[in-house]
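Please, structure for the following, as tokens.
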Amino acid sequence: MTDAPRRTALDALHRALGATMTDFAGWDMPLRYSSERDEHIAVRTRAGLFDLSHMGEITVTGPQAAALLDFALVGNIGGVAVGRARYTMICNAEGGILDDLIVYRLADEEYMVVANASNAQVVLDALTERAAGFDAQVRDDRDAYALLAVQGPESPGILKSLTDADLDGLKYYAGLPGTVAGVPALIARTGYTGEDGFELFVAPADAEKLWHALTEAGADAGLVPCGLSCRDTLRLEAGMPLYGHELTTATTPFDAGLGRVVKFEKEGDFVGREALLAAQERAESTPPRKLVGLIAEGRRVPRAGFAVVADGAVVGEVTSGAPSPTLGKPIAIAYVDAAHAAPGTKGVSVDIRGSHEPYEVVALPFYKRQR
């Protein structure tokens, strides 16, 4: 018998809105409410409202919380100021990526680690195991939070109408406690869409009230509810990696072109350090396959696992692919041999069920918002 999927605090509301639901990492989540293309364009031009309560929150507290996270993760977490956040990764001893994370420093001795839903248990287990010998506590807070995201150019105005928190002073990758529509929240200026926006961590019991307040406040600005399907095409256009596609235990941060997140200069040892040093040296001496963008010349859509071909030989593999509503063409992210990875490279094709469809290699991201 398989376990029934978990449901977020907003489950009944999604169904009342007519959402198409899907099983995602053991959760029943809204895939789309209407047209995923319309939802995508709303986020790019106006605003979208997402339920992201499947994400995994883990709280780390104690006098040595920073030291534990510096040992357990590849980033310099002790150097994060209170009220700020950092994108980082947790790797195994071999340097393979267990998950990519956002870590918020809530107080001197309190951090919130946000893991992907599919890896939350893996991350919790790894942090718990790595906490041995540190004066720090690791707590599973997945049931303590619902997470709503408002993303898109109209999101600051919508949120400002519901809070007196200083949103203008809230930088990208920062978070502050505040009240939104009378609901206590951690207000974070983070997101996974390539647009300006906010993620709101609240008690599950407050989620429905907040959703309704945001919906009402955003009505004139064109805010629409958005599902996971458009979240995927938004992050794909923004060149943001997805665990299980661009990032896996078989890839190191250097393979993924994200070596900058590994901070060798921080004090003390950390899990995977030696393997990651070797990975860095390999990447510098013999470049591995590089993560690139591919834009179709035709209309056929590539999918993860499809081969990238040049001169009759396989030179790479697609990790993510979809039609791009913004570009109006199919796009893909792929790992490609360094010899074929330069932007503007022609003569590259994707094997789509036996047909070699021409693609152009481009630098990531496909889309960058105007600031």
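Helices lie at 11-16, 36-45, 65-72, 120-130, 155-160, 207-217, 228-237, 273-285. The longest strand covers residues 313-324.
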